Amino acid sequence: MYRFIFLTVKMGSLVDVTFKLIRVPLIVQHCPCAGDVQEAAQLLANNEIRINCLDENGMTPLMHAVYKGKADMCRLLLQHGADVNCNQHEYGYTALMFAGLSGKTDITSMMLDAGAEIDLVNSVGRTAAQMAAFVGQHDCVTVINNFFSRARLDIYTRPQGVDPEPMLPAGLAGPLHKIIMTTNINPVKIVLLVRDEPALADPSALQRCCQVMELLCEQCMQQQDMNEVLAMKMHYLKCVLNKCRAFRQNKDDQLETLLRSLLRGRDTDGFPQYQERFIRDCIKKFPYCETNLLQQLVRSIAPVEIGNDPTAFAVLSQALTGQMAFVEGDYCMTCGEKGADKKCSLCKSVVYCSLACQKLHWFTHKKMCGSLQDQEPKPQETPRLKELKGKGNLLQLSRPTSNGRKTVTSTSRDHSEEDCRE
Question: Positions of the region Disordered (predicted)?
Answer without folding.
Answer: 372-422
